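Onboarding guide, step 5: your first structure request.
Type a short instruction followed by the sequence, for example:

Predict the 3D structure of this protein.
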Amino acid sequence: MSQEDARWRTTAYEGFEIHVVALVKGHEDERGQHRELAPSDRFTYVGYVCHPGADPKLPGHTVPFHADGEETFPSAEAAWDEGLHVGRTIVDGTHPDLTVLSLVTSGF
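The system replies with structure tokens like these:
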């Protein structure tokens, strides 16, 4: 499942929106075709923080984030939960590397 086809979840938080999608890690077979989910499948996430109504396709309108390296989760729900948690830390200013400062100062 591509990011474009995936089901994004959006949460309003402290004047921002947090968008997260859970993706199955290694969900393609050797020919690049999607396969059926297996009980052993692991999930990961990608997401972004933006102002409400911002266009994520425009540069500078989002703060993108993703799971670190090989980090995986046993279910889509667990991946979404962790992605939302990371998004909240970005908005709160407690994330060690990412901030919404560029969104606030640019007006996006």
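Each response can be followed by summary notes, for example: The mean pLDDT is 86.
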